[in-house]
Design a protein that fits this description.
This protein is mainly alpha-helical. Helices cover 71% and strands 1% of the residues. It has 9 helices and 2 strands. A two-stranded antiparallel ribbon has the order 1-2. The chain is globular, with a radius of gyration of 19 Å.
């Protein structure tokens, strides 16, 4: 569990790296951001399916026979992961990605050539927007950390845990940029932005411990834990991250990034199995 905790902590703190570009400028290209976020999306969705769900389904067949009880665990776990995210989405006030019609939509630029920063608003509005985004991203760290912990508990030389940690770290860096942009634009200092954004990553190691314990210390619960983490991640990707990458006129670029992320995971997983 110590390894999972250390890796999850580094993964969470990687969020602060996303603020670094704003040490030197207050905006980044929207096209570049959507492309990079697309790669992160591909990494996460492939880790959730090929990795988490694939590992859970490996345990459904024992000596060539269907283990109905394990299959039910996988189905229940996956559904529970989705329902948990639906409940969090409904009951916890937070900022949605651009393009959502249900909640408050973050103001965003309409096309690919614009930058990742709010339009000209009053200082208080910029701070409020930045903090709302930061709160939303903190909530998102929970299923990500749980998935990493469950991945490390799955065995196979911890390869699944490493794949998930890499995918989530990449995604966190992208989301760190989303959190840092409005706060820097509102006049917050570099250090203050870096510390606030990095602190949101602390939810990753905390939830990773829960995922690891659920997968390794609760007898027979590993398929449930793996599929629960998979369901939560897939809902998060579909409901939040893909709408974000497709809300600024860069859909094809973001989709190509997603495909690239998926291919990277295939190569990494294949290399891991080769050893």
């Amino acid at each position: 569990m110590l390894l999972a905790l250390i890796v999850a902590s580094i993964t969470g703190l990687a969020t602060g790296i996303g603020v670094v570009p704003f040490f030197f400028r207050k905006t980044i290209s929207r096209r570049a951001y959507d492309a990079v976020l697309g790669v992160g999306t591909g990494l996460m969705i492939s880790a959730a399916t090929i990795g988490l769900l694939g590992s859970a389904l490996e345990r459904v067949r024992v000596d060539g026979s269907l283990d109905l009880a394990t299959l039910i665990q996988v189905l229940v776990g996956f559904s529970a992961g989705v329902l948990v995210m639906v409940a969090m989405d409904h009951f916890i006030p937070h900022h949605h990605a651009g393009g959502h019609s249900e909640h408050i939509s973050r103001p965003h630029a309409g096309h690919g050539g614009d930058s990742v920063h709010p339009h000209e608003h009053e200082h208080d509005e910029e701070v409020r927007q930045g903090l709302l985004i930061t709160g939303a991203m903190t909530i998102h760290r929970i299923p990500e950390g749980f998935a990493i912990g469950a991945g490390f508990s799955a065995g196979n030389g911890h390869s699944l845990g490493w794949v998930l940690a890499t995918a989530v770290a990449f995604q966190n860096i992208c989301e760190g940029a989303v959190m840092g942009a409005p706060l820097r634009h509102a006049g917050w200092s570099r250090l203050r932005c870096f510390l606030i954004v990095s602190a949101t990553g602390l939810a990753v190691p905390i939830s990773a411990v829960a995922g690891y314990l659920a997968g390794s210390h609760v007898s027979g619960m590993l398929p449930l834990a793996l599929s629960l983490a998979s369901g939560a991640l897939i809902y998060l990707i579909s409901n939040e991250i893909i709408p974000e990458t497709h809300s600024h006129g860069n859909e094809k670029l973001a989709t190509l990034g997603l495909v690239a992320g998926f291919l990277i995971t295939i190569v990494v997983r294949s290399a891991g199995h080769a050893h």
